[in-house]
Structure prediction request, 123 residues.
Amino acid sequence: QVQLVEAGGGSVQAGGSLRLSCAAFGYSFSLYCMAWFRQAPGKEREGVAHINTNSNNTYYADSVKGRFTISQDNTKNTLYLQMNGLKPEDTGMYYCALDWRLWACAGNEYLYWGQGTQVTVSS
Prediction:
């Protein structure tokens, strides 16, 4: 059973930084996508960034380009999201997701999801 456990959320002031982590357990896929999504109160869930281990390509939503960096430590089976220059509009619950179906990378129908970690940015 695939399990994803996020950590690293918290409360920061605008302009601050946080690094989220997502530890993945129980999977044996050699090629897969991993992604970060977020959901603000009253809004739909949106993709923030994802990484495709087949192409090693990364993707970022326009709203976070230049501020967020997605990375992966394969030795620790851990996904990271470094968030710099945080803005109040970055506030939300951040979720890690994984899917072995590479065609699903750019979508939001990932098979496996973590429980989420809260990020709150105050102005």
